[in-house]
Amino acid sequence: MIYAFKGFIPVVHESAFVHPQAAVTGNVIIGRDVYIGPGAAIRGDWGGIVIEDGCNVQENCTIHMFPGVTVRLEASAHIGHGAIIHGAHIGRNCMVGMNSVIMDNAVIGAESIIGALTFVKAKAAIPPRSLVVGNPGKVIKTVSDEMIAWKTKGTQLYQTLPGDCHATLKPVEPLREIPADRPRQEALYATWEAIKREE
User: Fold this and answer.
1) What is the DSSP-derived secondary structure letter of residue 5?
2) Which residues of 83-99 are buried (b: 16+ CB within 10 A; e: fewer)?
3) pTM given for the model
4) What pLDDT score was predicted for residue 183?
């Protein structure tokens, strides 16, 4: 669902995919090849939200802010299931792990990885290429070339998802039996282990 608020209508690039069960409200700009999953709440009522090209905001994520703040997800930011971004700035090609919370005015440097269930405090300044875990989140090491390559491949898979959704996602009635000619998904996607072996 896309909602206008106080004269602000979300701007969504035609190549992006916003799931019908997501809610996008007000002063929101969504770039090319962005995927917004079901249950995501992207609420630009009190401030702006800019989601740059190639980002993904997965199922049940929340993006919001205090009044007058603009939240920015730089290109290829990867926001895992259930994460909350409140008034923060997420750098280019970052990954925010599942159920993490990034608080107000935090700045996450480019190509950083925030571990699942991590809490990043308000006004935190995370240097580029940092691996952050814990509550409160602490930098435990530098992200290696191998780690960022793995992250980038995962994000590239999400960057193909909007096109796939536009082409093939549709509401249907469920089948009652498994058809004999049901395709194998392994033929459509390399397994995660195969992707890791290629590195």
Assistant:
1) B
2) bbbbbbbbbbbbbbbbb
3) 0.93
4) 82
